């Protein structure tokens, strides 16, 4: 064993910080210490189990790579939780889990009623880790179209609700693919809600949410943290799909239950529906599904056109000479099908070109400038539910037959086909697919996938059926 204070450690930390950036570094790695360095392994310690599982599942390879860059003999990283007793010899030892268990109910039992915080102590905000907001993401700049009408209406309702109003849907759960406006809508609620001043609205990315807990547990700000949470009327969590890991979810579950039971609004966005959140505790899943779940679909051409138009107008406020003729807008709306981020990129390119060359925006120029933003249509997100529905219809069985344990031939084959499609058309793991098919083991799913793969080579009818199913699902 070599000296833990080895200067390799500070170099590794430097690398890590450079790779992940200051924010992430201070959230997750600032309190990581080296315990021991052996010939091939390094033992690192962190203060809580939660930090350990988060780093393990998200950054283990990164950390190892940083070590290997300093010392290529290192092949293994071991993460351990530092003993709480050692660190706080005076304070009575308490496990983080217990602390969390208690806190959610305690902070809501007081006189907190979700009123905006008085004083606005920045330390308190710090403890909560509120995420920065983009001033452009408001309701005023959000364009409503067919694919987002419901989500928009629900968001408006949440933002306009008064203290003490009955909460209509809780949580409000919005899901959509990348770049379809989730963050925009959530931040719009935050701006509008806080401007109304009825209820304090707190917007957090999933990472910040978790960091709030961790830092509150780690440092002595637990009281400030509870105090601040007491004042929250609406809690908004973006990118819920990143809330992974058992202890994280336990913490999330306590918070969710406590807030909802106390009549506070919770709003969540994710890139998938609750049923598709992997490795999520069933209690959390059902709580999430128990509110209003709204999907925002792909941006239609009309909506893309309107978004572009609004973007150009906004740009003109700062660049009065900038103009994009309607035919160019139509062209981009048709050609750039991907998502809101690419639309934004397209307008920025036109603007840059216009500013730098002084040439007016024309169709030819637009075609040249946005060429690489034109991609083939994103494949549609296929859901396991849809697969089950379509397969059941095709083979004239019911969806519950597919999920049941019945083993008659007329059910077994369709079930295998459905599992095969789930594996090939979605990114879900084998265990997750097994769970969605009536709690089957992942080996059963694997067997089904292999079976169908071996059959389609010889069985033309089956191959054709599967092609038809795929087409139906991807249309
Ligand atoms: P997500 O969080 O779903 O990945 P964002 O909310 O970050 O997507 O949206 C990506 C970009 O597209 C942002 O610039 C956003 O302002 C824009 N955008 C998406 N939907 C709309 C909309 N309906 N109206 C105006 N802008 C939109
Ligand atoms: Mg987002």
Descriptors for this entry?
single chain, 475 residues, Rossmann fold, Helicase, Ruva Protein, domain 3, 5-stranded parallel sheet, 22 helices, 56% helix, 9% strand, binds magnesium ion
Oligomer description:
single chain
Could you say which overall geometry the principal axes of the C-alpha atoms support? globular
Count of alpha/pi helices: 22
What is the CATH architecture term of the largest domain? 3-Layer(aba) Sandwich
C-alpha Rg, in Å? 26 Å
The spatial strand order of the largest sheet comes to 5-6-7-4-8
Q: From the 3D structure, determine the CATH topology of the largest domain.
A: Rossmann fold
Q: How would you describe the overall organization of this protein?
A:
This protein is of the alpha/beta class. It has four domains: 4-87, GMP Synthetase, Chain A, domain 3, CATH 3.30.300; 121-295, Rossmann fold; 301-373, Helicase, Ruva Protein, domain 3, CATH 1.10.8.60; 384-474, Chromosomal Replication Initiator Protein Dnaa, Chain: A. It is 56% helix and 9% strand. It contains 22 helices and eight strands. The protein has a five-stranded parallel sheet, with helices on both faces. α1 crosses α3. The radius of gyration is 26 Å and the shape is globular. The N and C termini lie far apart (60 Å). Residues 84-127 have low confidence and may be disordered. Magnesium ion (MG) is lined by residues 182-183, 238-239.
């Amino acid at each position: 064993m070599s000296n833990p204070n080895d200067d390799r450690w500070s170099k590794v930390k430097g690398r890590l910080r450079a790779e992940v950036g200051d924010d992430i570094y201070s959230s997750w790695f600032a309190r990581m210490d080296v315990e021991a360095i052996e010939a091939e392994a390094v033992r690192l310690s962190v203060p809580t189990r939660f930090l350990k599982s988060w780093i393990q599942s998200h950054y283990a390879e990164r950390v190892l790579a940083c070590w290997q860059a300093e010392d290529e003999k290192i092949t293994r990283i071991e993460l351990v939780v530092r003993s709480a007793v050692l660190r706080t010899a005076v304070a009575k030892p308490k496990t983080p889990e217990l602390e969390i268990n208690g806190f959610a109910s305690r902070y809501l039992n007081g006189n907190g009623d979700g009123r905006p915080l008085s004083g606005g102590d920045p330390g308190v905000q710090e403890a909560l880790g509120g995420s920065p907001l983009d001033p452009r993401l408001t309701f005023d700049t959000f364009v409503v179209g067919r694919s987002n009408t419901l989500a928009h209406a629900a968001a408006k309702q949440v933002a306009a609700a008064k203290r003490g109003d009955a909460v209509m849907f809780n949580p409000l759960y919005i899901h959509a693919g990348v770049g379809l406006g989730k963050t925009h809508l959530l931040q719009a609620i935050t701006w509008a809600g806080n401007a109304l001043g009825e209820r304090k609205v707190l917007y957090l990315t999933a990472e910040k949410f978790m960091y709030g807990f961790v830092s509150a547990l780690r440092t002595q700000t637990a009281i400030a943290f509870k105090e601040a949470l007491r004042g929250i009327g609406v809690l908004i969590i973006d990118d819920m799909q990143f809330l992974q890991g058992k202890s994280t979810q336990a913490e999330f579950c306590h918070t969710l239950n406590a807030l909802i039971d106390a009549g506070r609004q919770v709003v969540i966005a994710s890139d998938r529906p609750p049923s598709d959140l992997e490795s999520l505790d069933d209690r959390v899943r059902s709580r999430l599904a128990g509110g209003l779940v709204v999907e925002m679909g792909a941006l239609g051409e009309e909506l893309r056109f309107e978004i572009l138009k609004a973007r150009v107008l906004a740009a003109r406020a700062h660049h009065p000479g900038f103009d994009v003729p309607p035919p160019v807008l139509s062209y981009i709306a048709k050609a750039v099908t991907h998502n809101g981020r690419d639309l934004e990129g397209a307008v920025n390119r036109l603007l840059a070109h216009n500013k730098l060359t002084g040439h007016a925006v024309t169709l030819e120029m637009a075609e040249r400038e946005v060429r690489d933003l034109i991609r083939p249509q994103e494949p549609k997100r296929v859901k396991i539910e849809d697969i089950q529905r379509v397969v059941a219809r095709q083979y004239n069985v019911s969806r519950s037959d597919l999920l049941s344990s019945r083993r008659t031939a007329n059910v077994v084959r369709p079930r295998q086909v459905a599992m095969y499609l789930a594996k090939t058309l979605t990114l879900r793991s084998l265990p997750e697919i097994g769970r969605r098919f009536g709690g089957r083991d992942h080996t059963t799913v694997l067997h089904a996938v292999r079976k169908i793969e071996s059959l389609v080579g010889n069985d033309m009818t089956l191959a054709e059926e599967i092609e038809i199913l795929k087409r139906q699902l991807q249309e």
